[in-house]
Each structure stands twice: as C-alpha cells, then as structure tokens.
Model the fold of this input.
Amino acid sequence: MSKTYDKYYVPEQSPWPIVGAVALFMIAFGAGNFVNEVTRNKEGYGGYLLLAGVAVLLFMLVGWFRNVIDESMHGLYSKQMDRSFRQGMSWFIFSEVMFFAAFFGALFYARMIAMPWLDGASNNAMTAQLLWPDFSAHWPMTKTPGGTETTAMPWQGLPLYNTLILLTSSVTLHFAHVGLEQGKRTQLKLMLTLTVLLGAAFLACQAYEYVHAYRDLGLKLDSGIYGNTFFLLTGFHGLHVTLGAIFLLVILLRILLKNHFTAHNHFAFQAAAWYWHFVDVVWLCLFVFVYVL
Done:
C-alpha cells in the first residue's frame, strides 16, 4: 500500500539575511556614534550612517517580504512550512521577551539593590560615604553624582494618552482579525487601517514626548540611571512599535491592493497580530515600572 507524503519546499539561497545583518550593523554603529556626537556637541558621520542603515533595512524588508509573499501565493508552501513559520515567530517573540527582560532586570537591580547599597544600607555605610556622600535613595533618581538634576517624566499627560492609544489599537486589531475570520472584509479593512493609524499616532506622541523631555525637563540619555533607563526602555520599545507598524502596513496593503488572506489561510496576519499584542504588553509593563512606580 503506497503512502502519500506532503510536499516539502526548500527555499533557494537568499541574499536577504546578510543584507539585514549589514543593515543592523550600520544602525548599531551609526546610532552609537550619533549619540556620542550629540552629547559632545560635535559633528560626525554617525547620523548619516544611522539613516543609511535604516534605508538598507527597509530595502531588505521589502525584498524579503516580496519573496515570501510570492512563494506563498504560488502555493509552494506545505503544512510543514506553516508549522515552521509559526515556530519561528514564536521563538522570535520569545527572544524579544528576553531582550526586554534584561532591561527590566537592570531597572530592578538599580532600584532594589544598587540604590539601597549606595544609601548605606546593610554594612556598606563606609563605602557609600566614599562613593557618594550625600546620596539619598529615592526613585526616580534625577540627580547625578556630578550634581546635575533633571525632572522626571510624569505618567499623566502624554504617557497616559499613549497607553490609551496602544490599548485601543489592540482592540481594533482584534476586531480586524474577527472580521477576517468571519469573511467581513469591510470590517477587516476599516479596523486594520485604524490600527495602523493608531500606531503612527503613538510614535508621533512619543517623538513629541522626547522633545518635551529634552527641551523642558532637561532629561537626557546621560541624566544618570533614570535618564538611561527612561530612554533605553522607551526608545527600544518605540523601535519595536515602528517595526510592528511596518508589518501591519504591509498586511494592510496586501488586503487593500491584492485582496490577500482568507479565513483559513492568514498566518502573516496572525504573526503581525502576535507581535503587535506583544509590544502592547511590554508598554503596559513599561508604563507601570518606568512612569508610575
């Protein structure tokens, strides 16, 4: 008795992984030099290298997405490939969880261990006096050892509005998913468009928040442990929101222009939804531990 096996598709060799690696290197190297140039008030190539890296990254995303979409629409993928995509996206999101866990862990260490230690807690009074004699353990830590003092970003106002915006975007994305599964294309298009617009509104508000922090509060990346924590956590989260918004925009364009996805075949939509809900959860944790507590 013969047994029928499902087809197994092996993609051809692709240049996009190495292009993406080069883009990320340019972004990291350019961003590091750009921050150093800004803090020292000198001109350099960091900003240009950062922009070039972003351009190369976008080029890579467009090319790689196009190849994967073409392969999928030509029916080359099997159930095994579908499982591989799901496992890959799951592991990717898990790696992002660990990425943010490292920064939240650094925040926990600074607040719960380093600050009490510097304040002379336990048996370290002598060491604390030598390192920072007039130190007082309180959060947010807006005073640096050099005597510079800044103002903490309050949770009311822009951070609260951004939280509401991002939570609303998760709701609209859920209803878009429901519309896709129930064959309600108008609901799908409307709710997904609102989700993308809400993501853009979040990023615009965060950019304005950074301008307000720098110009009005004197809060900078070198403003002690609080400034480091604030800009690293919110900045990396903003980067992830940007990537998620691009992902959703690609999905939206496929729906509007090509009428892609059906109720039973829409993993790309699901992957984008998973990622977007993940960045929403990260923001809730960030809002509580960075802004409120």
